[in-house]
Amino acid sequence: MLDEKAVAVTTESPMFPGQHISVSTISKEYDLNIPRSFEEIMANSLISKYENERVNYVPIPNQGSYYDIDEDETKELEQEMILHEDQHIFKAIERLQEYPFLLLDKEHHIRYNLVDREEYEGMDEEGYYTDTDKFNRVDSYTYDELWSEHPDIAKEIIGNRTRYEFITLSGINRRQVKDSLYPYIADLAEQLSGLIREEFEPDELYPNLSPRTVGIYEKNKGGEAIVHITEFMDLNEMKSIILMSDHIINECGFESKNECKNKLGSVNELRKRVMHANRTLVSDRDDLSDLDKRLGYIVEILESIRDEELRSEDGYPSSLSNRLSLQFSEYFIEAKMLSEMIPNSEFDMEIDDLSELGDLDEEQLEEMFNEDDDDELVFDEDDDGENTVDEDDDGENTVDEDDMGTTHR
Question: According to the UniProt record, where is the region Disordered (predicted)?
C-alpha cells in the first residue's frame, strides 16, 4: 500500500568545490516531451512542437539517439553529450565545440529511497530526514529504476517533471555566464597587480600609463586609505608593465615576452566581452574555441603565480580564490509522505546555499576594467605560432588564429 510507504529523495552529488560554475548555468528547460522512441516522435507530431521552440534536435535518450530535424536523420546520442549538474561549465564549453547540443540530466545523482513510515520518527517538522544510515541502499532507485519497478510511485512523485534540459551555444551568452566568469578575471587582475606592486614604485610606472590612470591615482592617493596605482590600471596597462620585468614574466609562467603579450592580450579581449553588457561572448563555434582557450590562459597564469594546482581531477578549475568561492550544500535530503501528497503537485527539491559570494570591491574593479584600451594589435597564438587578425567592435585590431594557421586582416 502506498500509504504505508514514504519516499526519501537523496542526492549523491559531491560538494561543489570552490569557484564551481555548474553547467546548469547555461541549460534551458523547454516545455517539450522527451520521446522514448522515434515512433513516438511521429505519433505525437513532436517535430512541429520542437520547431516552434526553435529546437532543431529531438533527443531520444532511452535509445541513445537523437533526430536531426534539418537533416531528417537519426544520429547517435553519445554519452559525452549528457552532462550532470555537478560538472563544470568548462566541460560544456569544451564539448559544445564537438557536438551540436548537450543535455543536462537533472536526475543523474538523485536516488529514491522507499522506507516504512515508522522509520520516519526522526524527520523534522519541515520534512527533512538526515539519518541516511537507516536507508536500505537495496531499496534505493534511480529515475529509470523507479519508473520500471514502481511506476505508480514514480507517477505520483515524479509525474511529468522534466528530466533533461538543453545546453546550446546560445546559453553561453547568458548574463549569468558573464557574472560567473567575472571573478576569474578579477582574480587574475588582483594577482598581476600584486606582482607589479612588489617590483615597482608608482612613479616608475607613470611613463607607461594613460593620463587618465595617473590622474585618478593622483586624486586618490592623498586620502586616508593607502592606495597603489595598480588599483586603477586596466589589464592592457598591466600587460605593458609586466613586459618590462623578466621576473614577473617568469612568475606568470611565460617563456618569452612574445608569449606574455599574446596571452594577456587574448585574455584582455575576453575581459572586454565579459565587462561590456552589449557584447556577446560567442557567436559561433570559433568564438567558443577562443573562449575555451582564453579561460585556459587565465588558469595557467594563476597556477604559475600561486605555484599550486587549481584544477580538479577532470582538468577543470575547482577553486580560484577563497574569498570569491561559492559553497553549496554537500548533501540534501527531502522526505515526503505519499499519503499526504496532493494529486499532480510538484515534488520540489531544494538545495541550501551555505554561503554567499565574498565581498567584491566592485568600484575599484570597475575602474580597472571598464575603460576601453588603446588601439593596438593583440595576438592570439596557437600551438604552431600562426596568427590571424580580427577587428572588434571598438575598432581594435585583435589577432586570432584560424584552423588553417593563416593570417587574415
Answer: 369-409
Question: Which residues make Cβ contacts (< 8 Å) with residue 297, sequence separation at least 6?
Answer: 263, 266, 267
Write down which residue in 340, 366, 390 finishes a domain.
340
The answer as to whether 359 is a domain residue is no
Residues 135 and 277 both lie in one domain: no
Least Cα distance to 371 among 212, 190, 206 occurs for 212
Distance (Å, whole) CA 272 – CA 291: 12
**pLDDT < 70 regions, the chain:** 1-20, 115-139, 224-225, 309-409
Residues in the chain: 409
- The residues, ordered by sequence, that sit 6+ positions from 11 with a Cβ below 8 Å of its Cβ are 109, 110, 111, 331, 332, 333, 349
Structural domain of 275: 174-322+375-399
- Residue 296 CA, chain-centre distance (Å), reads 13
Res 392: pLDDT: 44
CB contact at 8 A, 396 and 375? yes
**Cα–Cα distance between 251 and 80 in angstroms, integer?**
36
